[in-house]
Write a structure and sequence with these properties.
The complex is a heterodimer. By secondary structure, chain A is mostly helical. Helix content of chain A is about 80%, strand content about 0%. Chain A is globular. Helix content of chain B is about 80%, strand content about 0%. Chain B starts with 6 loop residues before the first helix and ends with a helix. The chains are: A mainly alpha, B mainly alpha.
Chain lengths: ~260, ~80
């Protein structure tokens, strides 16, 4: 009974982390593709997107099976270290945004910026190389973060299949929603999602660094839930601590 | 006139740049902190065979690193 509870808590944290991380990256990629499509035409935007997705699938195919052959303790230490750094970066950014010290990630602004950049280039041949490259870069770079998250979380937890399926669901869900609401992606609560992802990634990072170094966690996988609670409380405290000082800073809000 | 480096060199350079931006970026203190945390816990667990202290210290050091980095960002926003 206890083992079942531990396993399910680990699975819930894994699914939550992969889903949120993929959804956030998908929102960012979709914003760029929509901007390219609306401004330069959909053909090259779709082609750039499809080629980027194929390149990402090739990366998963090449590195996914290779990761399985690395000794688990080494893999968990390396993956834990990467997730710890990556998660702390996300969490830091989300805390700074929530406290008002950093501007919120504005999808509308990114959309307008991309459109303005593309409209400044006049030529629009049948096969639009600029639109292709912009769509490819947007999808590939955001997708690379998805690939790293899915491969590292999935292989370390020995649940690569579950991680891939979760990522697929998140990508399709955001894609369909994005297609319906077109360019109103700014309504997605991106900072709250990033905060959640940051907390989950730091928790997993901490857990796997420990596992890689042969630390015996109390309650095994159940320790993940404790770590999630700890980092959530710490994030809330840090936001509360730096928020009142915002009045002193006044207009000195950084972008 | 400078020649463009070969494709292999550009790929390796791009790969290295990606990982540098991904792991270090504009928060080198978090990268250094993660290495220090791993070193400290490895010392405790593998060399000193201490488990309870490692369990407590690992998240505690991560919390301290995060707080220091947030405080650093807050200070630079004031300037």
């Amino acid at each position: 009974m206890f083992a079942a509870t531990s396993v399910s808590s680990g699975v819930i944290v894994l699914v939550g982390a992969v889903f949120l991380a993929c959804a956030v990256e998908m929102v960012e990629a979709l914003t760029i593709v929509l901007a390219v499509g609306h401004t330069r035409g959909w053909r090259s935007a779709f082609e750039g997107t499809i080629v980027a997705l194929l390149a990402l699938a090739a990366l998963v195919g090449a590195f996914g099976p290779a990761l399985v052959h690395i000794p688990l303790s080494v893999l968990r230490l390396v993956v834990g270290g990467v997730l710890l750094i990556f998660g702390m970066q996300w969490l830091r950014k989300a805390i700074l945004r929530s406290s008002g010290l950093k501007a919120m990630h504005d999808e509308d602004a990114i959309y307008k910026e991309t459109v303005a950049e593309l409209e400044a280039i006049n030529s629009r041949p049948d096969r639009d190389r600029i639109a292709f490259v912009m769509a490819f870069k947007g999808v590939f770079l955001e997708g690379l973060e998805v690939v790293i998250t899915v491969l590292t979380l999935g292989t370390s937890a020995h649940r690569l299949g579950l991680a891939v399926i979760t990522a697929g669901v998140a990508i399709v869900l955001v894609g369909v929603t994005g297609a319906i609401v077109a360019k109103q992606l700014s309504s997605v609560p991106e900072n709250a999602m990033k905060m959640g992802v940051g907390i989950l990634l730091v928790s997993y990072g901490t857990f796997w660094v420990g596992e890689g170094l042969k630390v015996n966690w109390p309650a095994n996988d159940g320790a993940l839930v404790g770590l999630v609670c700890l980092y959530a409380i710490v994030s809330w405290l840090l936001i509360a601590l730096i928020r009142p000082r915002r009045a002193l800073v006044g207009s000195e809000v950084s972008a | 006139m400078s020649e463009r480096p070969p494709l292999a060199v550009r790929l390796v350079k791009g790969f290295a740049m990606f990982w540098w931006d991904f792991l270090v970026g504009d928060t080198p203190e978090l990268f250094a902190a993660a290495l220090a945390i791993i070193g400290a816990v490895a010392l405790l667990r593998i060399v000193l065979q201490e488990n309870a202290l490692a369990v407590a210290l690992l998240p505690l050091l991560a919390v301290i690193a995060l707080a220091v980095s947030v405080r650093r960002a807050q200070r630079s926003a004031r300037k």
